Amino acid sequence: MGDAAGASDRGLVTLSITARHPTDRAAVLVLHGVIDYRSVADLRAAISAAVGRQPALRVVVLDLEAVTFVDDIGVGTLVVAGRICRDVGINLVARRPSPLVRQLLGMADHTRHGRHARRGRRQNTVNRRSQPAAVDHPG
């Protein structure tokens, strides 16, 4: 199936990550739990591993359906990960976020666009569009 990782704080797992690689051009990271200060190192490692494992990779999909909360550190990590992926030609896509997570990511996106729009630049953050056709399959 895939690789699993998780962050722990005295035995409490806050985020589990399962990596799936449906094609050489796409990777899916299925996240379950909370993206917070305790789990962002594991999330960064999982994204880096996916990018490093597949030289032809063009898209990393973060399946956020089972993510219940993202704190400010988690939002920042997703924003930076999206920027780094974009800079190396990889699209980072957030798929199926809960309404709360969608709102948190939207607030971060709105804040970033507003600040850069005043300077005449628009920065992209995590792409929250639905999953691209290249990885459009169940689970």
Key words describing this protein structure:
single chain; 139 residues; alpha/beta; Transcription Regulator spoIIAA; 5-stranded mixed beta sheet; 5 strands; 33% strand
Q: Care to describe what's here?
A:
The chain is of the alpha/beta class. It has a single domain (3-131), classed as STAS domain (Transcription Regulator spoIIAA), CATH 3.30.750. 36% of the residues lie in helices and 33% in strands. Helix 1 runs parallel beside helix 2. The termini are close together. 35% of the residues are buried.
How would you summarize what this structure contains?
The protein is an alpha/beta fold and 139 residues long. The chain contains three helices and five strands, in the order E-E-E-H-E-H-E-H.
Average pLDDT taken over every residue = 77
Content-based structural category: alpha/beta
CA-CA gap between termini: 10 Å
Main-sheet strand order equals: 1-2-3-4-5
The number of helical runs is 3
- Biggest beta sheet summary: 5 strands, mixed
Radius of gyration: 14 Å
How many strand elements? 5
Low-confidence stretches: 112-125, 127-139
Shape: globular
CATH superfamily: STAS domain
Percent helix: 25-40%
Strand content: 25-35%
Give the second-level CATH assignment, the architecture.
2-Layer Sandwich
Question: Under the CATH scheme, which class?
Answer: Alpha Beta
Order of helices and strands: EEEHEHEH
Total domains, how many? Answer: 1
Summarize the topology.
Elements: E1 3-9, E2 12-23, E3 26-35, H1 40-53, E4 59-70, H2 72-87, E5 91-95, H3 99-118
Parallel strand pairs: 3-4, 4-5
Antiparallel strand pairs: 1-2, 2-3
